[in-house]
Amino acid sequence: MKRKLISYICLVAIFMETIPVNALSNITSEIVPIESSEETKSEEESTEQKDEKTEEKEDKQKEESKSKLEDNVFNMYILDKIENENNINKKVDIIKSNINSFDDFCDILKSDCFYNEEYKILFDSLEDIELALLGKFIFFEEIEMSRFNFLNEIFKERQYDYIWQESYIEYMKNQVINKINNIQNYIMSL
To answer: Considering the entire predicted model, what is its pTM?
Structure first.
């Protein structure tokens, strides 16, 4: 184990050009082989098990990373289609047929690829529970901190991080009270 570590350090040092290659023979000649014993065998077995677990974790991370990359490429493709589309109804169709997660939908909204009245048409196409998810996203801190009243929150003056959030608030201000109450009930049950 010690020999492997020193060899690895030497290779790294050569690669990093911190020691000359001819100095390697001096370093490796000083390495004394470790006597084999039960302790070193169990240490090696333990290290091998750790290495296997580490490899499994790395494989999972690579797989997740690849999946996220594929998702990002796909979302960029979808985003490009939406941005290049002039018809709002077709934009909504692209979203409804290609976006399958709330996070992806929020990413699309954050990209600001909708303009002015397009937000109203997009929000009109959503079910109350979908509007509630967006409301919960916007008012998450308020919901967690105290008694939440959706009607009061949409009429409070505040700054929002994204244009879509401002458009959502304006959209909600123009809804009938029954719809607002229904969305609040959904928000509280999510």
So the answer is: 0.62
